[in-house]
Amino acid sequence: MEHNSPFPWLSFARYLTAKVQAAAEDVAKQAKKGGLSEESVEAIRKHILGIAS
Predict the structure, then answer these.
(1) Could you report the average pLDDT of every consecutive run of 10 residues in the chain (53 residues)?
(2) Are the beta carbons of 44 and 31 closer than 8 angstroms?
(3) Of 15, 18, 21, 35, which is the most exposed, with the fewest CB atoms less than 10 Å away?
(4) How far is CA 30 from CA 24, 39, 45, 46, in A?
(5) What is the DSSP annotation of the chain?
């Protein structure tokens, strides 16, 4: 994380966003591997990322 930023919360927000995106991708991979439909996988990914449908 960036320590010299005038907005330290922005660095933290970027960090959290990256972690959430990585988690969503990991869950999507596991869901596909488990046999869920592409539509279900996308719905789960959107839910994790907080994207309204």
Answers:
(1) 70 90 92 93 90 63
(2) yes
(3) 35
(4) 10, 14, 11, 15
(5) --SS-S-HHHHHHHHHHHHHHHHHHHHHHHHHHTT--HHHHHHHHHHHHT---
Contact 10, 38 (CB under 8 A): no
d(CA 24, CA 44): 8
pTM here?
0.71
Amino acid at 25: E
